[in-house]
Amino acid sequence: MKNKLKYIFLMGCLFGMNSLNAQFVSDLSDYQTSWIANDGGTPYSHIPHSMESIFVREDGVVASICGWDEGGTNVGVWKDGKIYSIPFESGTGSWGRNSGKAVAVDDNYVYQLMSFNGNSGDDGVSKNTNGLQRFPPKGSEWQLVARFGVTTGTQSRFPTGYGPGGSLMLVAKQTGRYLEGLAINGNDLIVAVPGVPEQNISDSLKIYDKTTMSASQTSNGGFRVTEGGVGYISADKRGFVWMLQPSLNRIVAISLTNGSIRSQSTIVLPEGVEAKSFVVDTYNNRILVPNRGKDQNVLIYTNIYTAPVQSSTFGVKGGIYVKSPKPASEGGGEYLQGEVGHMRFPGPTGVGVDGSGNIYISTMFPTTSTTILYSYKEETQELNWKLEGLVFTSTADFNLKQDNLVNGTDKLYEVDYSKLGGRLDKLIASTHDAFTFPNDFRCFPSPIICGVFNRIIDGKEFMFVTNMYSSILGAYRYDKENYGYIAIPCMEVRAEYVWKDKNGDGQKTDDEINTFPSRINTFSLYPDRDGNIWMTDAVSAPTNIQFKLFRLKGVNEKGVLEYEEPVSYRLPSYIIEAGRVIYDAERDEMLITCYTQANPNPNSAIWGRAGSTVLTYKNMKEKFANISKVPSEQWTYDQELLIPVATSNENSSSKSIAFAGDYLFIFLTRNGEINVYNRDTKEYIGQITPGSEVGKTSGWTDITYALNARKNANGTYELLGEENGYAKVMHYLIRSLSPPSAIEDVKTEKLIVSPNPATTSINIALGEDDSEYSVSMISIDGRKVLQQKIRNGVPIDVSGLPRGCYIIEVVGLNNKLTQKVVLK
After folding, report:
1. Cβ of 545: how many Cβ atoms within 10 Å?
2. 784-799: b or e for each residue (b if 16 or more CB lie within 10 Å)?
3. Distance from C-alpha of 462 to C-alpha of 472, rounded to nearest angstrom
4. Helix/strand/coil percent split, the chain, to 5
5. How far apart are alpha carbons 309 and 189 in whole angstroms?
6. Contact between 651 and 576 (Cβ < 8 Å)
7. pLDDT tens profile 178-201
8. Nearest to 74, CA basis, from 138, 140, 146, 134
9. 787: left (phi > 0), else alpha (psi -120 to 50), else beta?
């Protein structure tokens, strides 16, 4: 979407100057919304960030499932590389509902494992028309099978259905008794149900009638599973349901006639195989197992009814983490470690086949949760299509050596600017190898990795990444000859310790860790352009706010960053809480977002925000050199900028800050809104918001360093911002961002506003003129909060507006008059 926005303000009103007669126009216009790292850009079309397993119907309809997707696509249904349907409220905590481990599809319905706790409901009071509860009682949890229309995604009601839509089949009521598997056999639904040993309840397979969604009357109602436990299941057409038993690392065939295990069909998986699911190929009497272990491929077993044997595999052994030949269609040569490509799978989780010889493979990059769903012609290995998502939650930064490359926290993308307005990128590689570097802090379930900064130090490329709230910062180097695209861990700063890779092997060991005397309370770890690290340190807020500075010494012979011991600097008492501290080496300016004595936190229960104020400290090198004469607690800020901070509504609070060229960019907490300010004048320029290309929608700004900015040589600006709601990175190309210019000198003597300050109403006097005028009130962040027609002397009701500073703008036939007004 091309946006044309003009905001007209008096700088004196907004930023504390006493008076100003010139009217200024600042131009934020012609910016383009695009995105990176997801094949779908809108809430409905986005690809979920996880796929734990898949189910494939004979005609190639694929259903995927994950335990949680921020955008609500816990279950997605796909066909020919496009969305077929999205089951409504299939999980993600909606009213306590969470998605399970398996999904199945027939001609009419999608069936999904689900758990449903009563913590968000009505204590089980309300009932459906069938008399069954809509919500579990508080403190309880239901284990369920949910049913949806396969083409519509709507909840499919049935006579014995529980839940708000009457579409949930109750299997068990015990909390934590999560269902393990789901399969279809003719008209039967088969559910793998774990037991409760302390209540003498055995592991079991339960069988239900799909038509009535109740216990089957025509087939055996189920069987106990007496050995090996229960797990993922898949049914064949010979009267067996096959079950993965992770505790024994095997797959067994269980008779649907008597519940016995067919011993001659047992498959013991090789050591090192990590399987989340599998499928019985009923067309070819095979079993296919996606292997998330080091081999990263699909194991294929044949002769499954007499003496199963692993007869072949599908996919390059080692997946994306090894070197392998490139096909001639891609120009030949060799793939490097981390590089995505033909038959190179990143963490297979699910597999299925259809009736036309196609194979489908869902993947999640190991120890992360980025999804790619593939469809291949199995015999020829020709790719039919693929769908890509992105990990929750991440931003990206611009590559400093090649303008059309960007780095996510664990991926490298190539940008094609001819695709502006859509998905811009092609995924090149993963930079994360958990098999080679198992202590890399990007390995889940360590804190979610979100922020990323590219730096060039001594001519070498380095990458820094942060966790969600910037209490951890990891540093990474590259060695393309030996490790391809994989980023090698070389340093890690945490709130409690520092790890430095002394021997250059990328492996964290205890003897390389130095702990801090006390744990640091921080929401900010920031590497500047030169590689120095700035860290907020609230030692005893609000009276002893500090920051630590890790000064870079250089790069040693092993290619590892070397730092001096960190030095703490106490900040002036005017700062009562420091949110972010960043440093612009080009301008020699330190920027601190904070709460101050003049503008404290209006709601201390809300944590993690940037603050109410940006303070700019210039000439930092001189300040450090003169520290003995003027200690840091006596520093005086050079500029002060008030930024949005809400008392209760988090949508309009500042969360993240970035700079480029002459501008500051402040990312607000909700709706993807980015405020733009001139760095020199501190004038508010305008606001960038998600365009129609992405449904004008964005999730939370959920991380402390969610935004990166770049000024290009041609004067354009680019922004890369977190979009955690629907698993992508937002990209904005700003073609026009011009500095403010005075356009006229407006005399304000004729305009009288009273009372000022005001409380409930204001009067506007325009001399003796009795014409009708248009009056607007504009808030400090540029929003027009009131607009109406008035005549001279008619009061305006302002009792419903938040207290603060506004500009009144009065427009007549021949002039435009402005005046500052304060509501108290």
Report:
1. 25
2. eebeeebeeeeebebe
3. 16
4. 5, 45, 50
5. 29
6. no
7. 999 999 999 999 999 999 999 999
8. 146
9. beta
**Calpha distance 17→13 (Å, rounded):** 6
Helix intervals (H) in 470-589: 480-483
Listed in sequence order, the residues at least 6 apart from 598 whose beta carbon sits closer than 8 Å to its beta carbon are 574, 613
Residue with tokens 């239900």: 208
- 240 Cβ contact partners less than 8 Å away, ≥ 6 residues apart: 253, 254, 255, 256, 262, 265
Looking up tokens 């922004």 gives 719
**611-670 residue pLDDT tens:** 999 999 999 999 999 999 999 999 999 999 999 998 877 778 999 999 999 999 999 999
User: And the tokens for 432?
Assistant: 């994360």
pLDDT at 13 > cutoff 50: no
Q: Where are any strands of DSSP class E within 236-347?
A: 240-245, 250-255, 267-268, 279-281, 286-290, 298-302, 309-314, 324-325, 334-335
pLDDT > 60? residue 3: no
Which of 657, 684, 653 is closest to 671 using CA atoms? 653
pLDDT for 141: 96
User: Do β-strands 513-515 and 525-527 pair in parallel, antiparallel, or remain unpaired?
Assistant: unpaired
- On average, the pLDDT of the chain sits at 90
Under 8 Å between Cβ of 427 and 56: no
- Cα–Cα distances (Å) from 12 to 53, 252, 682, 796, 820, in that order, read 59, 76, 10, 23, 9
CA pair distance 245, 11, nearest whole angstrom: 68
Of 409, 525, 438, nearest in space to 473 by CA = 525
Q: What's the token pair of residue 758? A: 């005001």
Counting DSSP H helices and E strands in the chain, the numbers are 3, 63
Coil, strand or helix at 88: coil
Whether the CB-CB separation of 363 and 375 falls below 8 Å is answered with no
Q: Which residues contact 39 (CB under 8 A, 6 or more apart)?
A: 45, 47, 387, 388, 389, 423
Q: In angstroms, rounded to a whole number, what is the distance separating the alpha carbons of residues 205 and 153?
A: 27
CA angle 381, 233, 139 (to 5 degrees): 125
Q: Which amino acid is at 477?
A: R
**Number of CB atoms found within 10 A of residue 60's CB:** 19
Of 721, 741, 794, nearest in space to 452 by CA: 721
Residue-level length of the chain: 824
Residue 388 to residue 64: CA distance in whole angstroms? 13
Nearest Cα residue to 307 out of 252, 264, 351, 258: 264
Yes or no: say if 141 and 174 are a contact pair by the CB < 8 Å rule: yes
Q: How confident is the model at residue 323 (pLDDT cuts 50, 70, 90)?
A: very high
Beta bridge partners of 3: none
Rounded to 10 degrees, the C-alpha dihedral 594/598/602/608 comes to 10
> What are the pLDDT digits (tens) for 405-446?
999 999 999 999 999 999 999 999 999 999 999 999 999 776
By the 8 A CB rule, do 520 and 495 touch? yes
Are the C-beta atoms of residues 375 and 383 closer than 8 Å to each other? Answer: yes
Comparing 169 with 10, the larger pLDDT belongs to 169
Question: Hey, is 233 helix, strand or coil?
Answer: strand
Of 194, 520, 697, 580, the residue nearest 206 (C-alpha): 194
Q: Give me the residue label for tokens 């305008």.
A: 686
- Token digits for 317? 């052994």
DSSP notation for 142-189:
EEEEEEEETTT--B---TT-BTTTT-EEEEE-STT----EEEEETTEE
Burial class (CB in 10 A: 0-12, 13-18, 19+), 429: buried
625, with CB counted inside 10 A (0-12, 13-18, 19+), is: exposed
**Separation of alpha carbons 503 and 428, rounded Å:** 30
Count of beta carbons in the 10 Å neighbourhood of residue 273 = 17
